[in-house]
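User: Before I run my own analysis I want an independent prediction to cross-check against. Here's the chain; please return only the structure tokens and, at the end, one sentence I can use as a sanity check.
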Amino acid sequence: MGFELAGVGVQSRFLLGTAGYPSPEVLQRAIAASGAEIVTVGLRRQLAGGGDNGFIEAIRASGCRLLPNTAGCSSAREAITLAHMARELLGTCWLKLEVVGDEHTLAPDPFELVAAATQLVKDGFEVFPYCTEDLVTCRRLLDAGCRVLMPWGAPIGSGQGLAHPLGLRTLRARLPGVPLIVDAGLGAPSHAAQAMELGFDAVLLNSAVAQAVDPVSMARAFRLAIEAGRLGHEAGLLTPQDMAVPSTPVTGRPFLVGA
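Assistant: Structure tokens:
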């Protein structure tokens, strides 16, 4: 089930966001239930109740690799500045790069995103860009030096699932050797399973777990769905047909009829 991500071997295909949990204890238990080895940390996020309240300690205590993100940035310059702060504060060159171009949909700005990625790769960062499923933009990000792409399933926090499965399927087919992580918009474990069945390498989500009535149980549900979806993809899914195909062929063969 494991795979390689930016030169690092990873067993879990579930990356978990850490914002919006009701308490540090619930966050810690959700991380454990998810089996995640990588968690995102937003430097600008507002922790529940205001201030830190022990959330950073809970994240560090999980033993997971930190993936700081530049959530809230709207320009390449802003994202680059925040990225350098994150590296200094958290001691990692891994970065989830977000540059938002529209405040309503929180859609990534492809031009500012590519500009920021180009500079940050030169600055020694391992950039994980949050992008759309647009193939041309993704290729520009790869040309900039990104080794991992994180296309959205749907707008952040919307819970819509895979809004454009055809685009995601095309992206997977056209970039067969690139680690692709579906990030944002997933609201149910079935959405995560669908992404994995399409052949994506991993899933990153936050709101669907953090805002659940029982975040710990929801984290486990997503974990199982991701594992099942990946296993189904590797086993070989049945190709959809336009017509019925009998599961027990009878033409020209003897068969038994139950009494």
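Sanity check: Confidence is low (pLDDT under 50) at residues 46-50.
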